[in-house]
Design a protein that fits this description.
Layout lengths: L2 E9 L4 H19 L5 E8 L2 E8 L6 H12 L7 E7 L3 H8 L7 E8 L8 H19 L4 E14 L2 E14 L5 H15 L10 E4 L15 E2 L4 H4 L20 H18 L5 E8 L8 E5 L8 H8 L9 H8 L32 H9 L1
Parallel strand pairs: 3-4, 7-8
Antiparallel strand pairs: 1-6, 2-3, 2-9, 5-10, 6-7, 10-11
Helix pairs in contact: 1-2, 4-5, 7-9
């Protein structure tokens, strides 16, 4: 289509699902800090008055309740408002032996995607949805008596000739203090829009919706139950690309649900950065206990500089990059306790100030160009 509209959403760090994700990843980080080769799959349910932590790990003695309390307080809620139930057990021996042979920790398929719509090579709608809430969180932390931790954003962009050109609709629903007026929330939000979106993207046709349901005083887990892994589209590409189905948070990097999804993003981003495509989708598939991927699929959606089949063959060449679970963990630095900061505002397109995430590096660009030219 030459002209179309597309929508993505994001949620804040105080959204109940993101509270659960962050607790899961904070516990994972504590386990990896103790032992970089430790295994973990941590799930959290949080609702009014109750936080349940369950899962499997090779370090079941970690103080999960203390970590959950710290996370909840840092997000902006009162940790004494919840009772805590912790049920952590050892990882099954059958899974452990599969990973010990350098194989994948499970079967499954994972997708990575990149495009040239933004400077971080992410789809524009999800990128701007995340940035809106990051800016609103910064305001909220500087002004805790005005806004609360729970929020959602949604961005609809108009496209012409495959490129985003204007904001069709922008939506923000933000928890607020009881004394905060609607006019204040609108003023704060519009200032953020002006900061986030490129100049000229707002016009007299742009629709702006701010707290369209009305008052939003009660939020977070008091208003809705949160579960680990329920925001996988928010975590990835905002619906602009497929998702394999496996959640990320709480899983150590032997789980290819997480590590291979990061690797697929790394590959796709480097393909686009190398000028070999304007858009690139990479799918990887694995079998439990097997080291090498079962398949590699590439779709450049008609924008590739070389045929997709040849590009897939290049990415599957182990002399260019190894895609075994162990190699992925080593190349991308995944055995370190880096995961708590992935839990809000997306796992992709946000290299952090302290060195960034390994899967956002552009260290394959020259190798890909040389291989494609050979």
């Amino acid at each position: 289509m030459s002209e179309y509209i597309f929508t993505s959403e994001s949620v804040s760090s105080g959204h109940p699902d993101k509270v659960a994700d962050r607790i899961s990843d904070a516990i994972l980080d504590a386990i990896l800090a103790e032992s970089p080769t430790a295994r973990a799959a941590i799930e959290v349910l949080i609702t009014k008055g109750l936080c349940v932590i369950a899962g499997e790990t090779s370090r079941p003695k970690v103080d999960a309740e203390a970590i959950a309390r710290r996370v909840i307080a840092e997000i902006g809620y009162d940790p004494d408002h919840w009772d805590y139930a912790v049920r952590l057990q050892a990882q099954a021996k059958e899974i452990e032996q599969a990973v010990d042979r350098d194989g994948a920790g499970d079967q499954g398929l994972m997708f990575g995607y990149a495009c040239n719509e933004t400077d971080v090579r992410m789809p524009a709608a999800i990128h701007f949805s995340h940035r809106i809430l990051e800016e609103l969180e910064a305001f909220r932390r500087a002004n805790p008596d005005i806004l609360g931790p729970d929020a959602k954003s949604q961005v609809t962009l108009a496209y012409e000739d495959g490129r985003p050109t204007r904001v069709h609709t922008v939506l923000v629903s933000h928890q607020h203090a009881e004394a905060t007026k609607q006019a204040q929330i609108e003023e704060i939000s519009r200032a953020v829009f002006a900061k986030v979106f490129p100049a000229g993207w707002f016009d007299d046709r742009t629709r702006v919706l701010i707290n369209p349901s009305g008052s939003f005083v009660v939020g977070g887990p008091d208003a809705d139950t949160g579960l680990t892994g329920r925001k996988i589209v928010v975590d990835t590409y905002g619906g602009a690309a497929p998702h394999g189905g496996g959640a990320f948070s709480g899983k150590d990097p032997t789980k290819v649900d997480r590590s291979a999804a990061y690797a697929a993003r790394w590959l796709a981003k480097n393909v686009v950065a190398a000028g070999l495509a304007e858009r690139c989708l990479v799918q990887l598939a694995y079998a439990i206990g097997v080291a090498e991927p079962l398949s590699i699929f590439v779709d450049t959606q008609g924008t590739g500089a070389i045929p997709d089949a040849r590009l897939a063959a290049l990415l599957g060449d182990p002399t260019l990059v190894s895609l075994t679970p162990r190699a992925i963990r080593t190349q991308l630095g995944l055995d370190a306790p880096i995961y708590e900061r992935t839990a809000a505002y997306g796992h992709f397109g946000r290299p952090a100030a302290d060195g960034g995430f390994g899967w956002e590096r552009l260290d394959l660009v020259e190798k890909l160009r040389a291989a494609a030219a050979a």
